[in-house]
Amino acid sequence: MKEIIAIVRMNKVSVTKKALINVGAAGFTASKVMGRGKLVEDKSLIAGRRKTLMALAQKDDQATDKLITEFLDGTRLFPRRLFNVMAHDEEVPKIIAAIIAANKTEHKVGDGKIFVLPVLDAIRVRTKESGEAAI
């Protein structure tokens, strides 16, 4: 048994949920979280993102500039969605592939992370089944 933890963009929640259902994930939970990933060091990529974000904001004031600067330099946490998926060992590769397909963008940054952890046991509360049967 494995637990797959996926951190994804908020705007990718629906497609991630559909991908997990389509691939046959036994069940999953999703939580709102705040965080940040590895900082991007490519100055040209940062400049391009800054220009795009400023254009999307349609404002050119100090407050907007501060928010975008903090977003790009890593000092601000931003919202993400955390999915927890319990899976049988043999299902892990297809679940990971589905999460990646649903979340990969052309932004070159911020598409998320996936962690896979071993699970020692699981117990279904209703029936008291444990182990693989509980998933």
From TrEMBL:
PROSITE patterns (UniProt xref): PII_GLNB_DOM
Gene3D superfamilies on file: 3.30.70.120
Lineage: superkingdom: Bacteria
GO MF, one example: enzyme regulator activity
Sequence intervals crossing the membrane: none
Record-level GO BP terms: regulation of nitrogen utilization
GO cellular component assignments: cytosol
InterPro entries (UniProt xref): N-reg_PII (IPR002187), N-reg_PII-like_a/b (IPR011322), N-reg_PII/ATP_PRibTrfase_C (IPR015867)
Coiled coil spans: none
Protein name: Nitrogen fixation GlnB-like regulatory protein 2
Organism: Candidatus Desulfosporosinus infrequens
Gene field: anfI2
